[in-house]
């Protein structure tokens, strides 16, 4: 079961409102006062943000549909073909948190097929309660009503898996060979600092040097895992990238989010004379609104207006054959009998 967040079914205000209806119902994401959440959803998001975001989606929409939906299905099909070629009786399904095919519906199909062992593989490289743990909860809730409970296996994260690091290094290397840049930024989807503190069971989190390594103490720290991914990819690139850094994007609202913020970090790079910057996004596995529009259009325009020469968004893993191989490789590590 490959799991991702999901995507609007169409790039319209109606499509966004339907998507938001499920998204804003997830208490793993919005752990706030129900009245405040209702006001946010119904007075700001639905009437104001949905139409504007729909226009942004229209700008990245592919002929076959949303990039996230299109690439996810291609990956599913590619992984299924590899299991079939190996003669393994493994069914590969996609479950989306907030859009079709919903996690519960995909699991119901597996129950009808008589599948009794399920590997739950959230396509979120770094662990976060709002994504990974939400997916696990949805799976456990859906399978709790099965007549015979299936055996569940969960992939918590794969931020440092050698195959994942290798494929990102290959994508970056291939694309940087065609352009001239001064600096490479690894950009990750930000999280509220309060959300990360909730996973800090030992009180070690200070959003600084504590993220320089991942240990048993901070094993599920999202920021520390992002830093580890960046170090590993930069190490795999070796001398091919002289300078790189880490930043976080997509913050929303007045709360403190993981830092440094990408938009401010890009201005700092400009002040250092870095005018041609490439951005890679290894907290995603598929290009989506947050990569194609937020970085590829909004931040690029801001960067150039501020004096930069070029901000180059490197493509995500999407449906690259090497990424399909990686998903299969990680899966068979967890399913040795496959």
Description:
This protein is of the alpha/beta class. The protein has a domain at about 160-315: Rossmann fold (3-Layer(aba) Sandwich). Helix content is about 45%, strand content about 10%. It has helices at about 15-25, 35-60, 65-85, 105-110, 130-145, 160-175, 195, 220-235, 260-270, 290-305, 320-335, and strands at about 1-5, 95, 115-120, 150-155, 185-190, 245-250, 275-280, 310-315. The strands form two sheets. The chain has a four-stranded parallel beta sheet with strand order 2-1-3-4, sandwiched between helices. Helix 3 (about 65-85) packs across helix 11 (about 320-335), helix 4 (about 105-110) packs parallel to helix 5 (about 130-145) and helix 6 (about 160-175) crosses helix 8 (about 220-235). The radius of gyration is 20 Å and the shape is globular. The two termini are about 15 Å apart. The mean pLDDT is about 95.
Short synopsis of the structure:
With 338 residues, this protein is an alpha/beta fold. The protein is built from eleven helices and eight strands.
Q: Topology of this protein?
A:
Elements: E1 2-4, H1 13-23, H2 34-60, H3 67-85, E2 94-96, H4 103-112, E3 117-122, H5 129-143, E4 151-154, H6 162-176, E5 183-189, H7 193-197, H8 222-237, E6 244-249, H9 262-271, E7 276-280, H10 289-305, E8 310-313, H11 321-334
Parallel strand pairs: 1-2, 1-3, 3-4, 5-6, 5-7, 7-8
Helix pairs in contact: 1-2, 3-11, 4-5, 6-8
